[in-house]
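Batch manifest line 307
LIGAND: adenosine-5'-diphosphate
JOB: complex structure
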Amino acid sequence: MVVVIGSLNLDFSIKTHRFPEVGETLTGGKFVISPGGKGLNQAIASARGGEKTYLICSVAKDIMWQQVFSHIKKERKIKVIPVFSRKNHTGCAFILLDDSGNNRILVAPGANLDLSFSEVLRRLKKLKPKHIIFQNELSEKLVKNILKLKGKFLEAKFFFNPAPYKDFVKDIANKPDFLIMNEGEASLLFDKKILSENDAIKTLEDLRGDFKNNVLITLGEKGVVFLHNGVAEHLPAFQVNAVDTTAAGDTFVGYLSAAILKGKNIKDSIIFAQAASAICVSRYGAFTSIPYLQEVEKFLKKRGIKV
Ligand code: ADP
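JOB STATUS: finished
ARTIFACT:
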């Protein structure tokens, strides 16, 4: 069983021909409202990947939480454990998307930053998960405290996705069992530009002495470079017609954990998670584009891949 500790937001998106200029009001966009937040997306990916998943998150008893809850209550295998904040609203994001596929996003984290370690600890002690997944849309204090629990829950493996990147990650990067980030986050963490698989391999090989854990860098359409037992390796992405890369990284994290829980080795788990992400990018939307286990199995079977 998996516990995700993370953010839950309501996303307000407007698709527009072009972005408005400063002071300009532009009319004529198409509006969509959808559940979001890295925590929720990763929990949905884990649940659709077949694992019983709990999401511990902080929200407010407001209309935004009700909206999100009405969407996710239909989701099987996922149980959201809301910790209600009295100080703040449920987190929300305002997303503008233009005709060329560019986006401008503003997030008001609200209640997400109120989640306290004592609330989390109480639930973890009861749930005793095999995997704990968390990201950086929580307070720095909470992220650091979660990592201090390593070794205290007998079997739990810790999956940390340092997104969005913050500088304190440098001090804790070698602590989680799995550190999973994209090339932008890796460039900031390692203080060098990582643009290609060769850059990523070189960076991880240079650093292997510092990392006994698994480090994974996702490179969008270029796949994944990972460090395991001190060896850096590249696995290419699946070739698909990508139309919307929203939630690709979150799908990867949730499915990677699910695959490892099914007993697959690291390499097969990455292939499995990349198949799920490839399906995700071939569809529009965020949480609606995260595939179900059967779709991923079918995708791999069609390509003659056994993992
Ligand atoms: P993030 O969403 O965090 O920026 P990435 O863009 O690196 O993460 O994507 C995560 C994974 O999703 C990649 O490692 C890859 O497997 C898959 N992916 C992303 N973009 C594409 C694409 N254009 N074609 C195929 N797979 C993709």
